[in-house]
Amino acid sequence: ETGVTQTPRHLVMGMTNKKSLKCEQHLGHNAMYWYKQSAKKPLELMFVYSLEERVENNSVPSRFSPECPNSSHLFLHLHTLQPEDSALYLCASSQVGTANTGELFFGEGSRLTVL
Amino acid sequence: QKEVEQNSGPLSVPEGAIASLNCTYSDRGSQSFFWYRQYSGKSPELIMFIYSNGDKEDGRFTAQLNKASQYVSLLIRDSQPSDSATYLCALNTGGFKTIFGAGTRLFVKA
Q1: Partner residue facing A90 (CB), from B34, B43, B90
Q2: A29 SS3 class
Q3: CA distances to A59, B12, B28, B85 from B110, in Å
Q4: pLDDT grade, residue A83 (50/70/90)?
Q5: Which band of pLDDT confidence, cut at 50, 70 and 90, is reported for residue B28?
Q6: Are the beta carbons of A104 and A92 closer than 8 angstroms?
Q7: Residue B47 region, left (φ>0) first, then alpha (ψ -120 to 50), else beta?
Q8: Euclidean distance between CA atoms B45 and B43, whole angstroms
Q9: Of B59 and A53, which is predicted with more confidence?
Q10: Strand order through the sheet with B54-58
Q11: Closest in A35, A43, A55 to B96, CB measured
């Protein structure tokens, strides 16, 4: 596989469920990101990991819990979510450094519906 | 004030025309600027990036940056129906944080 892959592509969960979103990048990048995309709103940066260390945490509720076990994998653990958390969750990776453009490479997203 | 502002559209242009997409931003420390294209149901993909004031051309696309006015634009020449998508303006202030606008929907009529 190439690029950034996300699973599952679609997820429906109740407010009491616990689920996880998975992201894997095959680009050798040193940073990985979770973004939330809601209708007619800008992409919201949730978390950033660089070399497996969290470098950004944008005041995200604790019901979202990220995990980065290595530089190629990123998870978003979900528990006791609210209906307003229904959105498209996009994983991205990039190579951060002085010689790089800062381009983000996105996965296809996980469409989450909370009932 | 929003950090990155875009007109949500839709912007409708006839096939073959020039589509002009505009974006303003609030952080004068912004260093690099991006235009991403997002087709319905798909993820964003990079179209152009620009760092310096002036114009940058790539095929039918031209990005324009004016840091004094805090303004960045994207021109699409000879617009095609396949250009119909949402265009996201984004900026990076250095490091890991890339901030996006809400996007402008472009519709190119055949």
Answers
A1: B43
A2: coil
A3: 44, 11, 39, 14
A4: very high
A5: confident
A6: yes
A7: alpha
A8: 7
A9: B59
A10: B4-6, B19-25, B71-76, B61-66, B54-58
A11: A55
Q: In this model, does residue A1 exceed pLDDT 60?
A: no
For residue B11, give both structure tokens: 């912007």
Contacts of A42 (CB under 8 A, 6+ apart): B2, B4, B88, B99, B100, B101, B102, B103
State the Cα–Cα distance between residues A108 and A6, nearest whole angstrom: 6
Query: How far apart are the C-alpha atoms of B39 and A115, rounded to whole Å?
Result: 27
Structure tokens at B74: 């994207």
Q: What is the dihedral of CA A53, A71, A111, B10, to 10 degrees?
A: 80
Residues 6+ apart with CB under 8 A from A57: A46, A47
Contact between A92 and A107 under an 8 Å Cβ cutoff? The reply is yes
Short-list B73, B84, B77, CA closest to B17? B77
- The whole-angstrom separation of Cα B47 and Cα B37 is 6
Which of B98, B99, B104, B105 should we substitute to test contact with A (largest number of A Cβ atoms within 10 Å)? B98
Distance from CA of A80 to the nearest CA of B (A): 26
pLDDT for the residue numbered B1: 60
What is the band of B25 on the pLDDT scale with cuts at 50, 70, 90?
A: very high
Collect all residues with Cβ–Cβ distance below 8 Å to A59 and sequence separation of at least 6. Answer: none
